[in-house]
Amino acid sequence: MDSDKASGRLKNLAGLLISLATIVVIFKLTETNLTWDLLTEAQLWLLVLALLFHVLFWLFWAIRLKILCSYLYQTISVRYALETVLASSFLAAITPSSVGGEPVRIKLLADRGASIGSASAIVVAERLLDAIFFLLALSLFIALSGFAARLGLEVGVAFLGLLALCIAFLVLAIKNPHRADHLLDKIYPFLKRLVKAQRAERICTFLKNEVRLFSDASLELTKNSYSRIAPVMLLTGAIWLSEFLVPSAVLLAFRQDPFILYSITSQLIIAIISLLPLTPGSSGIAEGSMFYLYSRFVTAYTLGMLVAVWRGITYFSNLLVGFIITAKVIKVSL
Fold first, then answer.
1. How many Å apart are CA 231 and CA 129, to the nearest integer?
2. First and final CA of the chain: distance in angstroms?
3. Per-residue pLDDT of the chain (334 residues; tens, 9 = 90+)
């Protein structure tokens, strides 16, 4: 237990240090004195608005999670869904890539009566909705803005290829859950060497059952009519547009042009790149990508503070608020 806590603290520290170090480098590359002068002249209410956009990101995500659960006849409150989202965001902030929070969402949904398989189907559905939105929105905003078209298309094509592979794998898993049974039967002899035969059998039986529940839940979700799918698609757009408007609100706070089209196009590219599992919470990757993209249209003396404030709102707030909620959830579960 002590080693797990120490590991968690190291991950927190690693993400913070990488993020802060990258921001310091960005400050060195920009006109720091002018940047600090800019902060003193910032309009506070617009910075609050930027933070509210991030809060809406959490809230819309929680509402979507609640609706997806209801499609599988699982009832959770918006409050519990929000706590699940925040706890998930905390783990995502301390694990490689921005998708590290899924196990927490699965665990917390299972704590409310869902099977592991059903909870996994909900989380996978969330990520598929996000991926579809990213691809459609990236295509649209590149067409509207014409910004970073080559990089955006390269990122989009690579992401589309990966998504196609994932969907193909999921289709096979959903339509042929018996293949998982065969695979587990082959694993069973090796598992017996690690644990007692009775325990190995229980593990395999549990996994076979959860795979079938995942398959059944996934099929149930795909059977929903357009009138039920439309709300979660609209909420997915609201989730990410709220988050992607944060930099524009920060620019307005610094009395700069918000560059809404350029900014959202850049945020879509950054969001996809941040899925790479390289550093805790994509620290360094997110800041570096933002510096590279925003340097093309934002003045140098604004850029350092923009990256710092944006990261503070979208990353450090996840660490702080998520830590508080995670501590509460763990205490309650214990």
1. 11
2. 14
3. 444 444 445 555 555 566 566 655 655 555 555 566 666 778 889 999 999 999 999 999 999 999 999 988 888 999 999 999 999 988 887 776 656 688 888 889 988 888 888 898 899 999 999 999 999 999 999 999 988 888 889 999 999 998 888 888 887 777 777 777 777 777 777 777 777 777 777 777 777 787 788 888 887 887 766 677 888 999 999 999 999 999 999 999 999 999 999 999 999 999 998 887 666 655 667 778 888 899 899 988 788 888 889 988 988 888 889 888 888 876 655 4
Predicted TM-score (pTM) of the model is 0.85
Q: How far apart are CA 68 and CA 270, in angstroms?
A: 26
Q: Supply the range of the domain harboring residue 305.
A: 2-333
Give the phi and the psi of residue 97 in degrees, each rounded to 5.
70, 175
The answer to whether the beta carbons of residues 325 and 86 sit under 8 Å apart is yes
Residues whose CB falls within 8 Å of the CB of residue 280, separated by 6 or more in sequence, listed in order: 11, 12, 14, 15, 18, 93, 94, 95, 96
Radius of gyration of the CA atoms of the chain, in A: 21
Tally of structural domains, the chain: 1
In 3D space, the residue among 128, 141, 135, 140 whose CA is nearest the CA of residue 159 turns out to be 135
Dmax (CA) for the chain in angstroms is: 69
